């Protein structure tokens, strides 16, 4: 018995240490976003919301925030649509060279974002496609498509194929099968894919950095903020971004994953 | 297999479903890669790109010490990060899977990866707040009198590694946990019945069965780590450069796309070699 309790204690200590390591930078970030001084470092000079006010009053940051939301939602809609259609096609039809198609669709997963962004930059340069939010959004679809495809494809099971078959036997058209039967059955997977794609796009830096010029996304704007050195305003933006993401994670957890476990 | 047999016969309309995604990937992933490969054989003269069709850009990599050095730095940092992250994450995932009551496991896991959702750029910056000369760690150590001078933690390889490990511990905890909970307790019971102690059960039964999860996580870590620009740029300072930083320098400061392309392709070759090494564990399976 003594051996067991000793091991439990060691496990607890280890878990606490790792949690501490994981949360240390976040706690410091949030704490010093309330700093009532000019530097986000010790000593803590008192509680103030002035840096949050500064963030909300910063029109460039607010514009970048809006841009980020537009790109994240837009690119994720396209990604989920492409991912869903291709997963449906590959799971339900006899197509030649399926393995090659799957490999092609998931290939971008193994290439770093920097290289994907660079390839697009050079290519767009050649064909005279200007740097823009649209260009960045195209890149975001490229990087998120493998993941969305894989998530949706993995949920295309046999029992659903049978239900689709039944719907077809009852006279549903292909379009009706997809919109009224397949998509509703896959809703947790579709939502998870959309949500993940959105958080990755929302947080993506290097492709947006390379492919935007005048209209930038939030991570790019934060990047330029970093050049002014340690600054509680950066902490405030970071804390806000973290807060929003944490809320989204909780929503995903409560709405999608709980339902998926029925 | 059952499903493949039951899949409907091939008809032309089926292409309509797969075509948009395939075309998108071809146009915005494969084509840019081809363009990059072509440009890597060109040359930048003045502000123009000239089709010189030579391997000069690739030879530069071996001739100029700092390119080769950047690649070696990248490989070293990536291997250190991958190994450290696995060693830290495995026991952590194991504790969540084994010691935490099942009702609380999801909560424990969500907490373990919550900072994953902070902005990536901000996450590196927050480590700067912790590691800087007047940051939390140095101020605390100075305050309790453990050190007399602030430690030079930020702007070093150590800082880069810490920033990376922080990110990948969260990722690996997730992949390893997913593997551990899939493990049927029967295996361990059987091992115990056959007289294996906890240690040999772990070494000969649990570890081999969770190896695929570890390896998939390790590969993800390798790919994401070796190609990342932000963490080394924010935390590493400019004492030693990693490959992504060198590539960005070619693009940003010098607008030298041919050299940047050649370096990017060399980096991709390294990742491909790693992929081949990990390939037996990485499969895309349908449930």
From TrEMBL, chain A:
The chain crosses the membrane at residues 12-34, 69-91, 103-127, 133-154, 175-196, 236-257. The keyword Transmembrane helix applies. Residues 65-253 form the ABC transmembrane type-1 domain. InterPro entries: Bact_Polyamine_Transport, MetI-like, MetI-like_sf. Gene3D superfamilies: MetI-like (1.10.3720.10). It is a multi-pass membrane protein. Its main location: membrane. It is found in: Cell membrane. Pfam families: BPD_transp_1. Keywords: Cell membrane, Membrane, Transmembrane, Transmembrane helix, Transport. SUPFAM superfamilies: MetI-like (SSF161098). Belongs to the binding-protein-dependent transport system permease family. CysTW subfamily. This is Spermidine/putrescine transport system permease protein. It comes from Rhodobium gokarnense.
UniProtKB/TrEMBL annotation, chain B:
Signal peptide: none annotated. SUPFAM superfamilies: MetI-like. Keywords: Cell membrane, Membrane, Transmembrane, Transmembrane helix, Transport. It is a multi-pass membrane protein. The chain crosses the membrane at residues 12-42, 77-97, 104-122, 159-181, 201-226, 257-278. InterPro entries: MetI-like, MetI-like_sf. Coiled coil: none annotated. It holds the Pfam family BPD_transp_1. Residues 71-278 form the ABC transmembrane type-1 domain. It is found in: Cell membrane. CDD domains: TM_PBP2 (cd06261). Belongs to the binding-protein-dependent transport system permease family. CysTW subfamily. This is Spermidine/putrescine transport system permease protein.
